[in-house]
Amino acid sequence: MKPFLIAATLLFSVMYQLNAQDRYVIAESNVHFYSYAALENIEADNSDAKAVVDASSNAFSFRIPIKSFIFDKELMQEHFNENYMESEKYPNGTFKGTIEGSYSFAEDGEYDVNAVGVLDIHGVAQKRNIPSTITVENGVATITSKFMVKLVDHNIAIPKVVFYNIAEEIEVKTSFVLKPLEKK
Prior knowledge:
- By secondary structure, the protein is an alpha+beta fold.
- It has one domain (23-180): Lipocalin.
- The protein contains 2 helices and 10 strands.
- Strands 1-3-4-6-7-8-9-10 form an 8-stranded antiparallel barrel.
C-alpha cells in the first residue's frame, strides 16, 4: 500500500508540474492608445496590465487598471478618468477568451493568431476577434496586437464642446511579455 501512495503522490506532483508549466503570466506589459483628432492627438501608456495564459487550453484573461494610463498632460489624465472612463465606477478594462491558431511557447518563431473573446470597457462587454502575433525568441514569448475601439460601443460619451478633440475610434496597441507561472 505504501509504494502505491508514494507512486500516486509522485504522479500527482508530476502532473501538477506539467500543468503549471502551461500557465504564463505577464513579466512586462505595455498598453498604448492613440486618439487622432483634428485639433489635438491624445495618447497614453499603461504598464500595469495583469494576465494569465493557459497554453494547454488556449484560454487567457487580462485586466488593465484604467487609472494606470499615463498621459503627457496631467489635465488630460484627469479628464480621461473623471469625465470619459469614470474609472471610480469602472476601474478595469478586461478581455477574456481563447487564442485561436497554431503556436508554441516552446519553439522560436512568429505565430499569427486571433484573440477571441469578450472585451469589457466602461462596463460594456463586446465580443471581439483581435488579430495578434505571438513571437517566441530564445524561449521568451511576447504577444502583440493592434486594434480599434469605438467609443460608442462602450457607451463612452464625448461632450459636444470637445467633440473635435477626441476621435470616435481609438487605436490600441498591446505588448505582453510572458513568463511561466511560478508555483508557490
